[in-house]
Amino acid sequence: MGGARSQVNKPHKTRFASKSSRHVHRTASLSAKGKIGKSEGGHRAAVKGARAARIQKSKSIRDQKRAALLKEKRFSVSAPRVVVLFGLSSYANVNSVKKDLLQLLSGDDGQPTSNTIASSAYRLRTTVLEAPYGDLVACMEMAKVADLMAFVVSANSLYDNGSDGLIDPTGAQCLSILRTIGLSSTCVLIRDLPQDLKSKSEAKKVGISSLSSEMPEDCKYYAADTKEELHKFMWLFKEQHLTCPHWRSQRPYIISNEVCIEPDNSGTCTLVLSGYLRAHNLSPNQLVHVTGAGDFQLSKVDILKDPFPLNERRGHNLMESEENMNQICQTLTPDPSAQEPLLVENTPDPLAGEQTWPTEAEMAEADASNKERKVKRRKLPRGTSDYQAAWIVDGTDSEEGDSDIESEEGNGMVLDDELENYNDPEKDEDAISHFTGKFNEEETGADTEMEDDEVMTREQIEAEIKKIKDTNAEDEEFPDEVDTPLDVPAKKRFAKYRGLKSFRTSPWDPKETLPPEYARIFAFDNFSRTQKHVFKTMHELDEGSTTTCAIVGSFVRIHVKNVPIDVASRVCHASKAIPVVTSGLLQHESKMSVLHFSVKKNDLYDAPIKSKEAFIFNVGFRQFMARPLFSSDNINSDKHKLERFLHPGRFSVASVYAPICFPALPLVVLKKRDNEMPAVAATGSLKNVDPDRIILKRIILTGYPQRVSKLKATVKFMFHNPDDVRWFKPVDVWTKHGRHGRIKEPVGTHGYMKCVFNSGIQQHDTVCMSLYKRVFPRWPERLYDTAL
């Protein structure tokens, strides 16, 4: 009875539960009825085909990359991998790590004779270099060529109470500079760990946790006390896929193994450098840059037998290695018709600016404009005859109509924008019609006060100006305020300045009033297109034949000609401490132009950085002297405001005269100090090359209201004679409290003036006038400083 009475629930309909199953069922039923000819869903088949196509495409790309990598490993001759050891604190003994690695690679306990070793046990060629602790310039130069940056730390610094930890301030500064240049593949070698396994594991964990915030995410950490630990590091290093900064892979470069001098009879010499060619092929027609020396041409390129072959036999010794370095396999000489000229500056034509006789069309146009000017009617008093009108000089009265004539006839400062709308009498009458009559009634009282002030002596005027300046202290928001001189007319002192209706939208011709230095530089019609063409030419050179260029990975000896003897001797002396890097230049990179860098002041540099001060610029592999001009970076405008100092905590644009470089390149700005190592003043990167970038210097002339009445005020101490007031009348004025207005007319003989504003002005406000002029960088006295 109970079983018969039990409840039986309706089963779930799971046959067509999903949308796709219902769609398949519907299409199948319709096809069975003859309404659809296809047996399968068309949409589902299309999705299947697209997914299969994506899978096939990704598989083919993966196979191509794998084949290219295998081809590079099997058939190409790669240069030895460069491992640079950096000590992050004074506790780290980098020299002992270098000796242990070289002994491990050489396979014997003797003293290695070279920094480059071809290890048959690891099937790897490695160059081990040691960066001198505390020398930021040397560390920076070594980091530029490092394939693996191995940072060495000591675990003893974790237990020493007087230490700053695993990274001391010098190491932290060095690490920040290396980040600016661009880090290659990195690893950390931890020394002086405890012998006990548990304590050793704990100390390593503590070290990794304290270093992980300063290192890249893919950084590897190794214990490096014993030979077995170094052996594990080398095996992992052999299989590691190394990465390098993008800028370094754009140019060929050589790390010199040997540097020597071949004297010439002309007072110069040939600098001979030998080493492995890296990154790209090198043509003898290219220009090269020797770090710290400058740009030069090549006389020839010798391709030598590899002194460190990987398949080294047992009887191979140092004498045979030296014989291989002198055994020339091939010599490449430049083609005079195709060699890149060493052209640094443009030779200006002194007759290029000579005026020629005008053509008939230009003369006809001038006559037509003169006729139009004569037809223009002037406002004259009622009843004036033509004979009397000929004797009337424009702009001699203080009436509002005459002031408009002054602006039209060009007797005042000219604005870049059209002023007709602003000086339109009808619009002015509408704007100030409600107080014009009242203003004229108050002129008598204001003029009476002017007469009392005009009796003041020069010392009294200066004292009162100083008193007002003290009460209205300068603020960082208004850093461009200047005083109008008492003994020089303002229109003469500020003759190079002009007013702008709008800093963002007012036009400014970039070809107007250029300095003489612009005749010595080069410019591009389309810089981006030129850059693409230059890099395309470099890739074509890599695919060229071995008879015209040296192949990447080969051991070469380059002969750099026409090097000054003193410069070459300094390079040879510097090569004993750190390897000298010689990099190939791309097309146009020896020519001077105007380069713009995005820079930020170094937090550890306390001295102020002033515009046009001499600095050492490290841009990629290149190093040169420059006098930067700092400016803001306005995205929405083609004009940029000059900054007199590089302020900390924000980015600015530094513009310099320098050899052309193609971005992206890192920048490190060094300041040379007497009897000290150069200090890192700023860091950044190359922005672009553009001589037409407009940098404007702004000055603010200030005045102070003496008598205020609603929208109008009598302003003093902005100018000191009425001629200056008339000259600067077309320029708008503004106040620090946000009011905008214009000059109406001068009052008296000491430069007082009446101004009208768009809103009520207060007695304690300050009236300002902004003037602008275009500024340019300063040409460096010398381009290269070899004293470093």
From TrEMBL:
UniProt-annotated stretches for the region Disordered: 1-59, 334-354
Predominant localisation class: nucleus
Keyword Nucleus: yes
CC annotations in GO: nucleolus; preribosome, small subunit precursor
Localization per record: Nucleus, Nucleolus
Taxonomy, superkingdom: Eukaryota
UniProt-listed Pfam families: AARP2CN (PF08142), RIBIOP_C (PF04950)
InterPro entries registered for this protein in UniProt: AARP2CN (IPR012948), Bms1/Tsr1 (IPR039761), BMS1_TSR1_C (IPR007034), G_Bms1/Tsr1_dom (IPR030387)
Domain Bms1-type G: residue ranges: 79-243
Positions with biased composition (Basic residues): 10-26
Alphabetically ordered keywords of this record: Nucleus, Ribosome biogenesis
GO molecular function, one term: U3 snoRNA binding
GO biological process: endonucleolytic cleavage of tricistronic rRNA transcript (SSU-rRNA, 5.8S rRNA, LSU-rRNA); maturation of SSU-rRNA from tricistronic rRNA transcript (SSU-rRNA, 5.8S rRNA, LSU-rRNA)
Family to which this protein belongs: Belongs to the TRAFAC class translation factor GTPase superfamily. Bms1-like GTPase family. TSR1 subfamily.
Protein name: Pre-rRNA-processing protein TSR1-like protein
Organism: Rhynchospora pubera
